[in-house]
Every structure is written in C-alpha cells, then in structure tokens.
Specification:
heteropentamer; A mainly alpha (279); B alpha/beta (314); C alpha/beta (274); A: MetI-like fold; globular; B: 314 residues; alpha/beta; five-stranded mixed β-sheet; three-stranded antiparallel β-sheet; 42% helix; binds adenosine-5'-triphosphate; binds magnesium ion
C-alpha cells in the first residue's frame, strides 16, 4: 500500500510525510538542481538559436559577464548598495504593515482604513509617488527607500490581514480566554496562526521590493556614485552591453534564490511545517 | 519590380518633445505617404509609436519590432559603434539642430566652476544619454577632467526635474534640459542659463537623429529616400509656416502650451530643422576619446546612410 | 418531571437570568437557547444535559464571554459578565483549541504564564505536573498536530485545570476518552474542585458522567433549548452501584430518551428501519 | 483474557497482516500500532476498542488508504489497498470534515454525485432522505459553520451512510451525540449493514456501543497499540439487559479498566488526589 | 454583557457577528465615506499649505481636472483602453497561475518548478522582460499584456499555492475519500478551501497589474491612438500638467475602489464570509 499511496498525487500525500523528511530534503535539492540546469540549458539553447547577443546573450556569456562583474568588484558593490536600500525599505514596510494590520484587527475604523488604503494605494505605480517622495525625502536613497516601503507595505499588510481574518474561531477563543492584552493577542495568537499567509506576504513583498527598486533607480535620481544594481543594469543597457544587463538580472535571480532557500524556506521549515500548518 | 520588394509598412518610433517636430509634421500632414506617391511607390502603411528612452528604442529596433528609431545623436553614435558587425545600425537622417541648456536656480552658479557639493544637476538619463555626454564635454573643456561633475548628477526626467527646479524646495539646483523646458524655466524667472550646448560643441549641432539597421536601409532604399524626402518637406514646411507648425504641434500632442510660446521656440534662430547632421563627428571624437566607442568614424558619412551623403553634413 | 426552578442562591457565583441566545437576525434568526434561569453557588457543578444542537455549547460560550446574549442577563459575582478571562477557563468541544505552534508543555505553560502571570520556571513546573496527571508526559515536547484526538483534549483539560479557575467551562471534555482515562479525568476534576473550591459548568452526553461529576443536572429540551428540569444530585447517588444512582440514572434516562426530540429526531414517516 | 487470533477467513473483504504504522523516522520515530493481524469477512463489523492514543485512528486511516503502512500488508478483496475511494467511506474523528462551502444538503449531495456518480437530482433526493434520517431536515440549507458539533458529525454520518460503501470506516462517530440520537444512529447503521451487506470498522470508547454495534471487538493495548484480544460478540449478547450482554460488558470493562495503561496513566507518584 | 462584548476588540468579536450583518453593512459604508472625506481633506489641506501646484495640486483642482477629463471623453477612452489591456493580462495571468498551481499540487516536480520560478522570476522588473517580449510579441499591446501577465501570475500563484498547502488534512482526506480525479480535487476541494488566500492573491495581482501597466506603457511603446491611462499620465507629466497627472492617478484609485467594493468585497461576502472561512 505504501507504493499505492506514494503514487497518489503529491498534494494529497498523507500527513505521514515527515516520516522521511531527512531523505526528502536531499531529494528536493536534487530536483531543484536538475530544474535549474534544465532552465539554464533552455536559455543557452534558445539564445544560441536566436543568435542575437545584443538582445539575448547566451547563458554562458551572461555567466562570464557575471564572473567578470564580481571579479572587478563593481557588481558586488552595486549589489551591496541595492541590498542596503532594499533592506531598509523592506524593514520599514514590515513595520508599517505590522502597525496597520494591528490597528485593523483592533478596531473597526482601523479595518476600514486598511481596506481603503490598500484598495486605493496598492495599484498606484511608484512614479505616482515621485512628487511626494521628492518633497518629503529629497533626491536619492531616502526616496528610494520610501517607494520600496510602498511596494512592500501593501502586499504584506493585505496578506497578513487576510490571514488574521481566517484564524479559526476556536483558536481566537483560546487566546481571549487567557485574557490577553490586544498586543499580546495579535503577536502571540493571530500572528503565529496566520503565519502561512504572512510568509506568503513576506515573499511577495520581497519580490516587489526588488522590482520597484530596479524600476525606480532610474526615475528617482540616483547618481553614478550611489547607484545600485538598477543603475548597473540601466547604464549597461544604454550601452548595449546586454551580457552585463543579464548579469545584473542574474544577480537578482541568484539573490532571490539564496534568500528563498536560506530565509523563507528555512523559516517555513522551522515554523509552519514543523507546526503542521502546512502540508 | 524592385519597389514591390520593399516594405509595405513602416514602423517609426519617436520620443517626447518638440525635438521630434519633423516627425510630428510628417505624421500629421501624411508627408511620407505623399512622397511615396510622388516617387511612384505604393504608399506605405506608417505606424507611429512613442517610446521612452534610447535603450527601449535600440531593443525594439534590434528585435525587429521597429523600422526607424530615433534618439539623441550621442546615444545613436554609441549604438552605431556597439552594433558594428551585428545589428549594424546606421543613421537615416538628422532631426534638426537645437541647443540644450544647463539651467540653474542657484544665483551663485554662473558657470560650471561655481558648482559646489551642495548642488545637484538633473539629467534626463544616465551616463550615456545626450545631455550627460555634453555635460562631460563641457567639464572636459572647463576642468580638463570629463567626469569632474559626475558626482553631482542625478537622473530625473525632464518634467519632474523642471518641477523640482521651479519649486525651489528641492536639492535640484541645476538641470541640463531641452526645449521647451528650457524656455519654460527661463520664462518663469526662477532659473537662468549656465551653459549652452552650442557653446560646448562650437556651434549648431544635431540634437536627435533617426536611425535604422543597415539591413533595412539596404533592403528598402526607396522607402528610406521617401522618408528623408518627407522629413525635408516637413522641415521646409516648418520653416515656412512656424505659426501653423506650432498649432499643429499643439493639436497633435494635445499640448496645453501657448501657441505663441511654441512658435517662439520654432522661430528661435538657434533652432534649425534640417536632415543634415551637424557636428556629429565632434560627438564621436569625444566618445572615442573617453573610450565609450572603439572606432572613431573618419567622417559623418560613416555614421549615416548613403542617401544623406549629398547633404552638407558635418 | 416538571421544571424544578433553582431556589435563588443568596450570593451566587454565577447567575443566569432569562438568558436567550440567537444566531442571525430577522427572519433567518435561529434561537439557540431560550429563557435559561439558574444560579450557581461557589462549589456547584452544574451539568448541562440535552440533545445534540440544543444550545449547550452556545450557553457555555455566553458564560465565557465569547458570545453576546440576546435576552436576559448573565452575572458573575454580581457583575455583568464581561470579556473572557482566565477566571472562566474553557475546554472547548473542538479539537483545534491548542496553539499549533506550541508543544504540549508550551501550551500549558503559556496559559499559566499569561492567564496566571506565573514566571516561566514556575509555570513550567506546574505545567509538567498537570501534563503528567493527564498521562501525557511522554509527549511533553510534541506539537499538537502529532497528537491523537483524545490526547489533544487531555492537553486542553490539563491547561484548564492547571489555571485553577473559579469557574470551569467544560464542553464534552471527556467525549474522546476511553473509559479508564475518562474516569481518571473525572477524579482529577473532582479533586481539583475540592481543593480549590472551583465551580463547574459541564456539558456531557453521558448520564452516568453527569451524575458522577455534577452537583446539579440541568436538562434541556431539544432545539431551541429550554429548561426542562433542574435536578440536584444527592450525595448518595454519586456512588455508582447504589440504588440512588440507579434511580437517578433511570429517571434521567427516561427524561432524555422518552421525550423524542420532535425537531432533531427523524419523523416516523422518514424512517425505514430500526 | 489472551489474544484470540481470528481464524483466517476463506475470502476476506479486508485482511490486515502484521500491520505496523509509524510516524517520523530514525530516533524520533513513534510507533502508532504494531503487528495488527485480522481478517474481516463481508458483513463483519469490527469494533476497535482501546485507550486514547493507542493508534485506532491511524489504523483506520491506513485502511482508508490515507496513510502508508510501515510494516505488514493490508489487502482489500485480495488486492493491496490502494488510493482512498468511496468504497471505503470514512467518518473521521474531527469536526472539520465537512466542506465549509457547501450546505448540509450540498455536502451529502456532492458526495453522492462524485462518489457514486449519481446525477444531481437523484443525489439530492437520496441526500435529503439521509439527512432526514439523521434528524437534520431543519438545517438542510445551513452551512457547516452554523452547526453544533454533534450536528456536524451527523452530516458526516449521513454522507457516509448515503454512499452505501462496502466498508464503512467510522472513527468515534457518535461520540458527540446524546444518548437518544446515538441510539438512533446505531440503529441506522445496523439497518444499513443488513440492507447492503456493508462491513464496518468502528472505533468507540463505549463498551456498550461496542457490543451493540460490533460482530467482533478488537481490544488494543495502550500505546503503541498491539492486539490484546479479538472477541466475537455472540448474537445473544447484542440485546442490552441480557446476561450475555452483562457478562461481555463486564469482561471488556475489566479488560480495559483493569490493565492500567503504564504509559498514558499517571504514574502514582505524580497523583495527589482521588 | 452585550455591551461588554462589543467593547472587546473587533478582531475578537464573537462569531455571533452575522446577527446584525445588514445594519453593519450600512455602518461600514458610512465609515468608509468618513475616512474618504478625511483623506480628501488631508490632501486638500496639505496641498494648499504647500502651495506648489506644479508638484502637488489640490484635491479640488484634481477633481476639476478629472471632471474635465471625463467630460471631454479622453479620460474615459484612456481608462477603457487600459482596462482592456489589464483584463487581458489579468485573465492570462490567472489562467497561467491556475495551471502552474495545479501542476504544483499534482507532482513534486511541479511544486519544485513553481517554487523555483516564483523565487527567480517574481523579483525581476518588467524591463527584464522587454527583450523577450519584443521578440515574441513585438511592440505595443501584446507586449503590454505579456508584462501584465508576468505581474499577475506570480502573486496569484504564490498566494494560491500557499493556500493549497495549508488546507487542513481532514478536508483533504474528505476529498480523497470520494475518489476525486486530480482536476476535480483541485477545483472542488483545494480551490474553495484556499479561497481566502486566493482572493488575497487576486487582490494583489489586480494591484500589480495596474502598477505594471502604468509603468510599462511608455517603455513598451504605444501610439497616441492606442495609449491608455499611463499614456495620459505621461503626456500630461511631460507638459507639466500636474493636475491632469493626478486626475489620472485618481482615476486609478477610483477604479480600484470600485473593483474592490463591487468585485472583491462582493466575492468575499458571497463566499468565504458566508462559509465562515473568514471572521
Ligand atoms: N455560528 C452559528 N450560526 C448560526 N447558528 C448556530 C451557530 N452556532 C450554533 N448554531 C445553532 O445553534 C444551535 C445550538 O448549537 P450548539 O452548538 O450550542 O449546540 P450543542 O447543544 O452544543 O450541540 P452538540 O451537543 O451537538 O454540540 C444549533 O441549532 C446550531 O445550528
Ligand atoms: N501526524 C502524526 N505525527 C506523529 N505522531 C502521530 C501523528 N498522528 C498520531 N500520532 C501518534 O500516534 C499515536 C496514535 O494516534 P491515533 O490518533 O491513531 O490514536 P487514537 O487511538 O485514535 O487515539 P484517540 O482515541 O485519542 O483518538 C499517538 O501516540 C499519536 O501521538
Ligand atoms: Mg456542543
Ligand atoms: Mg482517534
């Protein structure tokens, strides 16, 4: 029967899964590597078939550019600059999202405000914030942090709040039964209970922070000195150094993969998977 | 028989601004179609597209989504150099000469030498755009060091930079800009001119140019000739009817600008609508000197297609 | 057996006065319980006995402060019952009342820290003690999702007991337990009450359990739950095997089984077998 | 009472052969049940009786095909048990087994449409019929979250019964029901078995229920669950009040209560009361 | 006690809430209006205080521009164009997200692929897709639809997949018990069970579709004829018609509010709130 069950769809795999967790983890890694290799080969093949290095360099050319970029130290410095901005904006976004979501779960007014602000501001592109950002924060890094915050705040708040709202009634009653204060109720009951959704929000926020950073670096007044990886991409794009452009994008992909593997997966494994909140 | 081999549709991309007036006139007055008929060719299906920035232009051109791109002369030369042996882009025609001006709202700034660490110079694009290159040329002339001012530059689109400069509430104290933003800023009384690109280049120079791939130009010589003829016709019309040209521009762009204001820009003696490239080699020489291009064209004819060689370019 | 109204206690711990609970509003409103009036003195253990869906859980939730009342009043020590609090610890009917992100020990310890304000060490000690008493020392560090249904309920029981509340609200707490464990839990409950003087509001479907655990049994009519009888359990009846027990059991059994639930029992026309 | 191994059926519906179930791996592995060997003929109703946490639910899940076996084999009609299917309808122990987005009627009808391939109208008719039999006609159009615990379980029971499976897997299905409703459900179960020849694997903590429902009782030892006794229920014992019933009940009671669960029972040192 | 309970935090409001749902809905609307008025006043006040119409026009000036824009028909036409693109991209994104998520819940390989692609592609800015978009779809609308699809696909897939993974075991077992085919299991069990998360994903996808559309309209090329609201914003920005720029943004906000109120709220009320999956 073990065979039969294993043949069943993975989505419906029995909860006994932890049984061979250790071996599975190794297995997963293996599959990821195969998939990554496959994607790289696909890229290489398509780019060669296309034969237009100005538009789409081969994977190998991109890797060469990446290695050179890191060897020269430029790509590393640019990545560091971007990551610094990103983390500041991400942090600020998380703090604001936490505050807004807390407010929303504490009072009807807060809930209405969160819903309203999310529906109104979330669709606005970063450009829309430009005038206000420049007014409040001036040129350069602080404005960038501001738009990154905007990019992170809404997805995280929306996901978390949706998570809060679907915490089962019994769990809520358990928390209230202990006479918890509002902050404790939020931090010690709602947040862990909504962690799967919060984590999904954090992942999305992270991705949108990147997107926004890159898109905004051009419009938001960065100077050659302080430019991050967006600057690297744009200047190389303007010079048709396409391999470098893709090296920059590949860097973002690599950072994404590392953060996903180390941070988000790790966090999920240490929490919601361990707690049985996720299959 | 040869005409039939040529393209039936022509996809032309422009950017924002009055610098693209010849394109706008050609579009609105259907000059390309007219010239084609005059040349005995079937009128091509012309599609006019607006794109922002030279990079998107280049990518679209190289991807074959565009037939004719347009950008500042400096980025075009850069692209010409970068694509030698691959996409092989080549200039089709200049889109006129007009000065760009470095303005400032800081009364203390009278020349490049007066900039301090507190000043910020807004440029519409990064590093290799038209204005950054001219600024570097000016810095080279002033300080003997072309990247002397790079640390003061920030990238900000023309309209935003203008708003910032005029607001007086921002770190932006200078802006290297193009018509009509120059005239708007100067007219407000809040900014003054610090530097004129004509002074840097030593005279009138091409601002924008239309370009395509060698392959397209060679496969469609008649269409290209028609295009150049249409641009020439547009330029002639603009010069002859500045008031009407202003009105046409305002109508086409749904602009809220005052027609008299636009007309004044068109009538500005520094502004010349011509397809002949001017001082293109000054740009290429500088770009070669600072290592941005690997080959220094001996003559402007290397940069532009043969159909233009009869013009009095430079 | 008619409705035996409780003589009003002079200084009741809990008093329900004409309590009515409803769900929904307007035409679609469902009345869960209607007009419940009963007092609980300190040390009383009131068992709610009634058919499925008659509103027992709703009533417990109302007393716990989890649910508003739609008619009548609930007073705790003379004051209107307010927000939920650890003075009224509840064992809910559902299996998902443990915090999934805390271990068995963590669940009980956390409740003690927050509900009783104990420091971590003291809370941990007391938690271990109670987890041992419900027989779960083996799974001290297990997360709730790895427990069986009965084990989860025992953790919730340990948590409620450990907090030594004035009033315990227990909603079919032992339903998922085997006979032996159930008896042990009943013993623990009685011992706790004796020790701390706690009062209990207890829902069960077992008549013998009702007699064993309760000082009084409130039997409710089928949906919507109305008071059918409030029966004191004489001390003599508490021992199984005595005639007093047998008599009370028989009378309760007749009360529950005899009057068929017109609402929840299948109409005779619908039944094919049995 | 020793382990009475079942004489192998000639053509069993279900046969468990040395079944062992484990959770986790390596040092942290927990064995839920060990070495269970038993056959079920068509029409047999095997009751699993055993202390909380001894692996009854796990065993049911394994037979249902929801969980892999870690030792031994489970055969259904001679073939290794495969993916879950409507031929083995389960009533789970948990209250959240209804689809929250379907009404009471919708839940049962949907199961009939998908599990039996009936068209909507036929399925609806049969669903109504069964919902009536579990006494829930009143809440036909209610969503599960508005039901009481016992009502939810009854919907699940109606759903399982309506599908008329070859093998019913019932995990403490009547635990949340009052005595009257419980008896009605037992009757429905027995009638259904008689009518369709269904076999049943039934978990309960009630000894009287075990005798009433089962043709055989398999009593399991405390964690990890091993076979302690497999006792056929003589026809004579099925009627409550008979001496055969009383004898069997007493013997099972002694079996369950007598041998204290060394693991789950509180160590004597830890107990302070009662 | 009713009073006492109502005084309790809204997050912990008892499940009896549906009791006065009808009156509550009216109440909600009232609060929203108050909040909206407050935000409008704040805008007006701040803009007046600033006194720089070039950077930030007043609310009233923006409304005037909005009314004029709609009166002239231009804003309406632009909005219609944008909405059309948006819906196409949104639709394509949803279909792809559904396919990817289905694949992910059917096989281990699919799951790994989804996780990998999300981690890799989600952070990439639209500009990274430009070369490929131009190659595949050329300039203009199809490319725009392509990047909108990219913007929608990942948040929806990620949220849905997170939702799928946190469907409780008992519910999964119920579905499997009926011997459902894989597509049925996904559509009839996993999807409704994960609806709170899917809805959150749809909301986010909607917002990101807008953001991307506006930002991409220029980069990806439009002709004056076919330009949408992004074109409106850009052309007005190029002409320093700031009131019109904000009228364009206000239009996005209004569309967002309408879609939220009619579509998402309506959907939530008709489903997860009715089913008790959300408090
Ligand atoms: N959230 C709710 N919305 C609407 N009706 C509800 C809700 N909760 C319970 N009810 C209804 O109220 C009545 C009483 O439910 P309650 O859970 O209190 O019953 P109970 O006595 O605990 O039943 P059981 O013994 O089955 O647990 C039932 O008819 C039920 O349908
Ligand atoms: N998902 C799981 N992971 C790890 N251990 C588990 C898991 N599920 C159950 N167990 C363990 O397996 C054993 C048997 O559990 P099971 O639920 O089968 O017991 P049970 O006999 O049904 O108990 P109850 O009568 O309390 O419902 C228990 O010790 C439990 O801790
Ligand atoms: Mg109940
Ligand atoms: Mg069990």
């Amino acid at each position: 029967m073990a065979d039969a069950t294993l043949a069943a769809p993975a989505a419906t795999a029995p909860a006994a899964a932890p049984a061979d967790q250790a071996s599975r983890l190794r297995f997963n890694g293996w599959r990821k590597v195969v998939l990554l290799l496959g994607l790289a080969l696909l890229w290489e093949g398509y780019a060669r078939h296309l034969g237009n290095a100005l538009l789409l360099p081969t994977f190998s050319a991109t890797v060469r550019a990446l290695v050179e970029g890191f060897a020269s130290g430029e790509l590393l410095a640019r990545t560091a600059t971007s990551l610094e901005l990103l983390l500041m904006g991400y942090g600020a976004g998380l703090v604001l999202a936490a505050l807004l979501t807390a407010l929303a779960s504490l009072s009807r007014w807060g809930a209405e405000l969160l819903e309203l602000l999310t529906a109104m501001l979330n669709p606005l592109p970063a450009v829309a914030l430009l005038p206000v950002a420049l007014l409040w924060f001036g040129i350069g890094a602080p404005s960038l942090v501001f738009v990154i915050t905007h990019a992170v705040l809404w997805p995280v708040a929306l996901s978390s709040y949706a998570g809060f709202r679907s915490v089962p009634r019994t769990l809520r009653m358990t928390g209230r039964n202990l006479g918890l204060s509002a902050p404790r109720f939020i931090i010690e009951i709602l947040m862990p209970a909504a962690l799967p959704q919060i984590l999904a929000g954090l992942r999305l926020g992270w991705a949108f922070a990147w997107r926004t950073l890159i898109a905004a670096e051009l419009v938001f007044g960065v100077s050659a000195r302080s430019g991050g990886i967006g600057w690297f991409i744009y200047t190389n794009r303007a010079q048709l150094e396409t391999a470098n452009v893709f090296a920059g994008l590949l860097t973002i992909i690599l950072v994404g993969l590392i953060v996903e593997a180390l941070l988000f997966r790790g966090a999920a494994r240490a929490t919601i998977q361990r707690w049985g909140q996720e299959q | 028989p040869q005409a039939q081999a040529e393209t039936k549709e022509l996809r032309i991309a422009q950017q924002f601004g009055i610098g693209y007036l010849p394109f706008i006139v050609a579009k609105e007055r259907r000059l390309i179609e007219g010239e084609a008929v005059r040349a005995g060719l079937p009128a091509p299906q012309v599609e006019w597209i607006t794109l922002s920035g030279a990079a998107a232009m280049n990518e679209a051109l190289i991807a074959g989504s565009l037939d004719i791109a347009s950008a500042g002369i400096a980025p075009m030369i850069l692209t010409w150099d970068k694509t030698r042996g691959t996409a092989d882009i080549i200039g089709v025609a200049a889109l006129g000469s007009m000065p760009n001006v470095l303005t400032s709202n800081n009364p203390a700034v009278k020349s490049l030498r007066d900039f301090t660490d507190k000043d910020r110079i807004a440029l519409p694009s990064v590093k290799v755009g038209f204005q950054p290159i001219v600024l570097q040329m000016a810095a080279e002339q002033t300080f003997g060091q072309y990247d002397k001012l790079d640390n003061l530059t920030v990238s900000l689109p023309h309209p935003d930079a203008t708003a910032q400069l005029l607001s007086g509430q921002s770190e932006i104290t200078a802006h290297f800009t193009a018509p009509p933003f120059i005239q708007q800023q100067l007219a407000s009384g809040k900014a003054h001119a610090v530097l004129n690109s004509y002074d840097v280049l030593g005279g009138p120079h091409t601002f924008n140019a239309a370009y395509s791939t060698k392959r397209f130009v060679e496969a469609n010589p008649k269409t290209i000739a028609v295009l150049v003829a249409a641009l020439d016709a547009a330029n002639a019309w603009i010069t002859a009817n500045p008031a009407e040209a202003a009105k046409l521009y305002i109508a086409a762009e749904k602009s809220k600008l005052d027609p008299a204001f636009v007309e004044a820009i068109i009538r500005d003696p520094q502004v010349r609508f011509t397809t002949a490239p001017e001082r293109a080699t000054v740009f290429s020489a500088f770009l070669f000197k600072i290592g941005l291009i690997k080959r220094n064209p001996a003559s402007w004819t290397e940069l532009f297609q043969a159909g233009l060689w009869t013009k009095a370019g430079s | 057996m008619g409705v035996t109204l409780r003589v009003a206690e002079p200084d009741p711990l809990l008093s329900l006065d004409g309590v009515t609970l409803r769900y929904g509003s307007g035409a679609s409103a469902v009345t869960a319980v209607q007009d419940i009036t009963v007092d609980l003195a300190v040390g009383d253990r009131l068992v709610l006995l009634g058919p499925s869906g008659c509103g027992k859980s709703s009533l417990l939730r109302a007393v716990g402060g989890f649910q508003p009342v739609d008619g009548g009043r609930i007073h705790l020590r003379g004051k209107p019952v307010g927000k939920p609090g650890p003075d009224r610890m509840a064992v809910f009917q559902e299996f998902d009342q443990l915090l999934p992100w805390r271990t068995v020990l963590g669940n009980v310890r956390y409740a003690l820290q927050r509900g009783r304000g104990l420091d971590r060490a003291t809370a941990g000690k007391r938690a271990r003690d109670w987890i041992g008493r419900v027989g779960l020392t083996r799974v001290l560090d297990a997360y709730p999702h790895t427990l069986s249904g009965g084990m989860k309920q025992r953790v919730a029981i340990a948590r409620a007991f450990a907090l030594e509340p004035d009033l315990l609200l227990m909603d079919e707490p032992f339903a998922a337990l085997d006979a032996l464990t159930r008896r042990q839990m009943q013993d623990e409950l009685l011992a706790l009450c004796e020790q701390t003087g706690a009062s209990v509001l207890f829902v069960t479907h077992g008549i013998d359990e009702a007699i064993r655990v309760g000082t009084h049994v409130l039997s409710l009519s089928p949906h919507p739950g109305r008071m059918k009888a409030l029966i004191p359990v004489p001390l003599a009846a508490r021992q199984r095997g005595t005639t007093a027990f047998a008599q009370l059991e028989a009378s309760l059994q007749a009360d529950l089984l005899g009057e068929a639930d017109q609402d929840t029992a299948p109409p005779s026309g619908e039944r094919r077998h049995g």
